[in-house]
Amino acid sequence: MTVTARAYEEALNLLEDSEHARVFFAPGRANLAGAHMDYNGGRVMPVALSRGTYLAVSPRQDGRFLIQSAQFPGEAVELSPDDLRPGRVKSWSVYTEGALYVARRAWGELPGLNLALSADLPMAKGLSSSASVEAVVVYALSHLMGLNNGASHPDQIDEWVRLAHAAENEYAGVRCGILDQSAIFLAQPDSLLWFDCLELTREHLPLDAAQASIVILDTGVSRQLARSAFNERVAECTQALGLLQKHLPGITCLRDVFPADFAKFGGELTSTLHKRVRHVVTEVVRTDLAADALRRHDLAAFGATMTASHESMRVDYEVSISELDAMVAAAVAQNGCYGARLTGAGFGGCVVALVHPDAREAFDTNVAAAYRVATGREVKPQWFAPAGGPREIVANLRGPSV
Ligand code: GLA
């Protein structure tokens, strides 16, 4: 898809002293394998998108922060560093504040700043708009304070992941794992990230652009009750782990429950917990199959794991909604579509599909028509190649290079 820099201009235009500004960008992400695996210690396979959050930032002499967003006009937040504390706000600025809070705790006193944000990623649609805000703020602060040891330094990247994740957990109160922040900071163009959320090992698996594109299909339904329902799933997994540990004392997370263990001890769980664990146990297997398929360039086999994962999220994890199901059905019925599934937490938001680029025209028309018939809603598919991670944007006379 065409990269738009409108959000870059929007962020910059919010600053009164834009001539002193630096601009940073962090992408959103889609996850193609390993659904709800991160907080269960499993493996995930995300890509970064070329859309995300732009942050224009300029210095202030009074030591305070002014936070503005082009998506929330007239709702500027001004505060001093001592005002930052978890629970202070639940509104849009919570992710920026969270990043400032954790960065100050880790790195000491921060400089006073004007922070102006704009995103070209839809919010609350499962594409990690919140993690892209946390990531861009942490990344920018690290650069502004001269702390970065170089973007490719693994320890530095791991620290950025930890801080952005702490902002979401501690300040925004979402008990998520490290999928989103790892996907964003570890992203490399034209590759899927394979990431083990327990061992923190990683690999970049190339995706052949001539054979496959990432297609985002927005159901038009924002995530419903995302925070509470998401935290409920995390709590169910914690509870199931506690029960299974009575029989399997060596396990530290649900990813350690093998299918044979589950067959032996799963019957002791309530039917709800049984379904949740069945999703995890089968998704661990599917994610390993997905990685093997990609390593041998078998996109049909990879896509089949995506569609099976959606089914498991629909039936066992119960995080889908009818619009997501209709979108997956519309996508996988098309020629050239390898597979499709919801991306992110679920409860609304987007489907991610893997599609042959030659099928683009027919896919766009036919999916829109099928989705309209099924739901009465419209969809405009967005096509992407896997993109890179956060970066500073250096403007030139013809505009920003993004
Ligand atoms: C949300 C969370 C992630 C992950 C996914 C489900 O996006 O933020 O940490 O748990 O849901 O895979």
Summarize the model shown:
Helix 4 (154-171) runs antiparallel to helix 5 (179-185), helix 6 packs across helix 8 and helix 8 (271-295) packs antiparallel against helix 9 (299-317).
Distance between the termini: 13 Å
The total of helices stands at 11
Total strands: 15
Overall mean confidence score, pLDDT: 94
The tally of domains stands at: 2
Strand order of the largest sheet: 5-4-6-3-1-13
**Outline:** globular
Q: Which helices and strands occur, and which strands form pairs?
A:
Elements: H1 6-13, E1 22-31, E2 43-44, E3 46-59, E4 65-69, E5 77-79, H2 94-107, E6 113-119, H3 129-144, H4 154-171, H5 179-185, E7 191-196, E8 202-206, E9 213-218, H6 226-245, H7 259-265, H8 271-295, H9 299-317, H10 322-332, E10 337-342, E11 350-355, H11 360-375, E12 382-384, E13 391-393, E14 395-396, E15 399-400
Parallel strand pairs: 4-6
Antiparallel strand pairs: 1-3, 1-13, 2-7, 3-6, 4-5, 7-8, 9-11, 9-12, 10-11, 14-15
Helix pairs in contact: 2-3, 2-4, 3-4, 3-5, 4-5, 6-8, 8-9, 10-11
The chain binds alpha-D-galactopyranose.
Describe this structure as you would to a colleague.
With 402 residues, this protein is of the alpha+beta class. The chain folds into two domains: 3-207 and 387-401, Ribosomal Protein S5, domain 2; 213-384, GHMP kinase, C-terminal domain (Alpha-Beta Plaits). It has eleven helices and 15 strands. The chain has helices at 6-13, 94-107, 129-144, 154-171, 179-185, 226-245, 259-265, 271-295, 299-317, 322-332, 360-375, and strands at residues 22-31, 43-44, 46-59, 65-69, 77-79, 113-119, 191-196, 202-206, 213-218, 337-342, 350-355, 382-384, 391-393, 395-396, 399-400. The strands form four sheets. Strands 5-4-6-3-1-13 form a six-stranded mixed sheet, sandwiched between helices. A hairpin with a 7-residue loop joins strand 4 and strand 5. Helix 2 (94-107) crosses helix 4. The model has no long low-confidence stretch (mean pLDDT 94). It binds alpha-D-galactopyranose. The site of alpha-D-galactopyranose (GLA) has 11 residues, from helix 5.
